[in-house]
Design brief:
alpha/beta; FAD/NAD(P)-binding domain; 3 domains; seven-stranded mixed β-sheet; five-stranded parallel β-sheet; 19 strands
Length: about 500
């Protein structure tokens, strides 16, 4: 299809999150008339910046994996990523701190990391070497399968997928896989906590996703200068350079469809905007329930939506601190019993008795996030989603105080409480009410095998012609690289260039 033809076709994208912007900039490059409608005053959705006083935080993601995916997506939009973004490699990738005060620094250099393992967990370095070598082919086979759509059952018979099936280790969990390589629970924790990126437990997450840890070790972990939200801002800029438009503070009330075909949207102010194609970048279950009338989505009735499995949620602290701390960029602090911690999250405890948490300290590398001499500190605790009844509003101050005490006890930030000058607490209810996340499930739909590939919501929505889905709730799944891939897959479907 040439540009002259595509200029006649109008695309409406609901939501200026990274999936919608990825699709939007590629389609704008191809000559489509692209209009993005964003309900908020800032871009990005879960990838938006959060500004509190003079401090800047990320609402959600705080780092980048698989930088080659971002480069490819920008290239498809006819641009060099490096002209818009400055990715800085983080080394060590992160510091893991155990309850017995042992700590493990995960380095980019494989030999240096093996020396680190040998000094902290003697003997486990051999298992690491074997794990790494055997995951090279596993990653290549599985990730290639996530780059193509699965809208029809026969897509399961693609050659790539058939070759990848043995590597998927169906019937095994990440925990099972790691037992093949590591004797100590601590090393299995180090190589398996990444299941939380999918909002899952390593004791439940399919063994195929042991590639998550491999992507960090093989390709590195990166910080975009200015913050991860700069990715969405860069894609929005490219979209506009090609003539696409973004309307902020514009809320879509309903996707309009007639005779099974989408033809536009109804806005909350009563306006109707017609389009040839609609792309929904809202949280999947929220978007279905609130934007698509139930009678028009028989594949995803309200009953079906409530029966799906969703990820965990998170409890967040955003702290503006009038001091700089010389600690790593990324820190994972484990509690006394990690398995019990995870079981309580997914068993409906609300917040675990002794929670593990993630602490982000980016201001040493990136001074743009806080005033001189100060720090923007981000704390994330995985917790139960809102399928569990828990009094988040009445308990949030108590939980906040507990976390500050734990940070002071378990890290070098011994005087943190006396240096906080700005702060915000963000609970699962805030994910639901402020970001429109169904059940507060911050990582969207669970990635169990019965909700993957063809069994995950399709990029081309089957019930309504001309309605497409992007984001973490559709194929290939949550996480920034795969969300951008969902935008690419959708753009290629619309333009007829899909693989």
């Amino acid at each position: 299809m040439n540009n002259k033809e595509t200029t006649k076709k109008k695309i409406i994208i609901i939501g200026a999150g990274p999936g919608g912007l990825s699709a939007g900039m590629i389609l704008a490059k191809k000559g489509y008339d692209v209009l993005v409608l964003e309900k908020d005053s800032v871009l990005g959705g879960r990838n938006a910046p959060l500004r509190i006083g003079e401090y800047t935080f990320e609402v959600g993601p705080t780092f980048v994996m698989l930088p080659q995916v971002f480069k490819e997506i920008f290239s498809l939009a006819g641009k060099n990523m490096e002209d818009y973004l400055d990715f800085r490699r983080i080394d060590p990738l992160y510091r893991l701190r155990y309850n017995d005060e042992k700590q493990l620094f995960v380095y980019n250099d494989k030999n240096k990391f093996k020396e680190e393992i040998s000094s902290v967990f003697p003997g486990e370095e051999n298992g690491y070497s074997r794990w790494y070598e055997e995951h090279i082919n596993k990653f290549e086979r599985i990730y290639g399968c996530l780059k193509v759509p699965y809208n029809k059952p026969y897509h399961y018979f693609r050659g790539k997928l058939l070759k990848a099936v043995p590597s998927m280790q169906i019937g095994r969990t990440i925990s099972n896989v790691l037992e093949d390589y590591f004797k100590t629970e601590e090393m299995r924790m180090a190589m398996g906590f990444q299941a939380k990126y999918l909002g899952m437990s390593p004791w439940q997450c399919p063994g195929a996703f042991s590639i998550l840890s491999y992507t960090e070790h093989a390709f590195g972990v990166f910080h975009p200068m200015g913050g991860v939200h700069k990715i969405s801002e860069a894609m929005a800029k490219i979209l506009e350079e090609y003539g696409g438009k973004i309307e902020m503070n514009t809320t879509v009330k309903k996707v309009l469809a007639e005779n099974g075909k989408a033809h536009g949207v109804l806005l909350s102010d009563g306006r109707i905007i017609e389009a040839d194609t609609v792309i929904m970048n809202a949280d999947f279950a929220y978007g279905m329930k609130n934007l698509v009338p139930e009678k028009e989505r028989p594949s995803y009735s309200d009953k079906k939506l409530s029966s799906l499995k969703y990820s965990c949620s998170t409890f967040m602290l955003y702290l503006g601190v009038d001091k700089k701390y010389d600690i790593p960029h990324h820190n994972i602090i484990f509690g006394k019993d990690y398995k019990k911690n995870v079981e309580q999250i997914f068993g409906g405890k609300g917040i675990p008795d002794d929670p593990a948490f993630y602490l982000h300290n980016p201001s040493l590398l990136d001074p743009s996030l806080a005033p001189a001499g100060k720090s923007a500190v981000y704390v994330l605790v995985p917790v139960s989603n809102l399928e569990t009844s828990f009094p988040w509003e009445s308990k949030k101050k108590e939980i906040r105080d507990m976390l500050i005490r734990m940070i002071e006890e378990k890290t070098e930030m011994k005087d943190l409480s006396s240096h906080i000058e700005e702060e915000m607490i963000f609970t699962p209810e805030d994910w639901r009410d402020k970001v429109n996340v169904y059940n507060g499930a911050a990582f969207n739909l669970s990635h169990k095998l019965s909700q993957m590939l063809f069994l995950r919501p399709h990029n081309r929505f089957e019930d309504i012609k001309g309605l497409y889905l992007v984001g973490g709730g559709t194929h290939p799944g949550s996480g920034l690289p795969t969300i951008l891939e969902s935008g690419r897959i959708t753009a290629e479907m619309i333009s007829g260039t899909e693989k």
